[in-house]
């Protein structure tokens, strides 16, 4: 993914130069406690963004 973004010229600048060099991609969900407070996050990678989000969501539900 980094190689693809680095070849995106000005269109990839924000992705490569934000979050201290961390690359953010789709496929995650936040984890909230019973009061709705965010307590963490969980993510998956390897499928489509929709598949990754579904798997991450299943993991988040399993934690509650």
Keywords:
64 residues, alpha+beta, 3 helices, 38% helix
**Helix and strand composition category:** alpha+beta
Label the overall shape. Answer: elongated
What's the average pLDDT?
76
Helix content: 25-40%
Describe this structure in words.
With 64 residues, the chain is of the alpha+beta class. The chain has helices spanning 2-6, 13-16, 49-63, and strands at residues 28-32, 38-43. Helices cover 38% and strands 17% of the residues. The protein has a two-stranded antiparallel ribbon. It is elongated. It starts with a helix and ends with a helix. The model has no long low-confidence stretch (mean pLDDT 76).
Short description:
The chain has 64 residues and is of the alpha+beta class. The chain has helices at 2-6, 13-16, 49-63, and strands at residues 28-32, 38-43. Helices cover 38% and strands 17% of the residues.
């Amino acid at each position: 993914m980094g190689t693809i973004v680095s070849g995106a010229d000005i269109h990839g600048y924000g992705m490569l130069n934000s979050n201290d060099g961390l690359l953010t991609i789709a496929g995650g969900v936040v984890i909230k406690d019973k009061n709705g407070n965010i307590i963490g996050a969980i993510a998956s990678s390897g499928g489509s963004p929709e598949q990754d989000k579904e798997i991450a969501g299943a993991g988040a539900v399993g934690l509650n």
